Amino acid sequence: MDTSLTDIFWVLICASLVFLMQAGFTCLESGLTRSKNSINVAIKNITDFGITTILFWSFGFALMFGTTSSGLVGSTDFILSLDKGSEINSFFLFEIMFCATSVTIVSGATAERLRFSSYIIISIILAGLIYLSLGIGFGEEYNQEHSMAG
């Protein structure tokens, strides 16, 4: 697969736009809650982004996109190194943004309803189990040989 610098740049632009969604969700949720809870909601969003990044970096990317030995989940690229090349690194960043955004959406539904520690546990379950299992399951349908457009 031949990729050009333009393709990598486009993926980075898209990842940046999805990252801006994180900031948008934080502002929206902080603005919709009572003033005493606005800081708590903002900290939840920042923390779940950090948790999601660590989990996806340590094993999520490997399970979803690593080389498979059994045919279903990946078995390589755990704790992904930054020397894999700009194509893999930009795709990795793009996928982290989607994983983090999916966890952040739940933050809005649980604003003012959960304690911080409970939300952290939910974030770990969402990022480390639910997002990955759905990503692996649906990712098999659209693997490297299939085009997403048809």
UniProtKB/TrEMBL annotation:
Pfam families named in the record: Ammonium_transp
Single GO MF annotation: ammonium channel activity
Record bears the keyword Methyltransferase: no
Chief location of this protein within or outside the cell: membrane
InterPro entries, sorted: Ammonium/urea_transptr, NH4_transpt_AmtB-like_dom
Keywords: Ammonia transport, Membrane, Transmembrane, Transmembrane helix, Transport
Topology versus the membrane: Multi-pass membrane protein
Keyword Signal attributed: no
Domain Ammonium transporter AmtB-like: residue ranges: 10-134
Protein name: Ammonium transporter protein
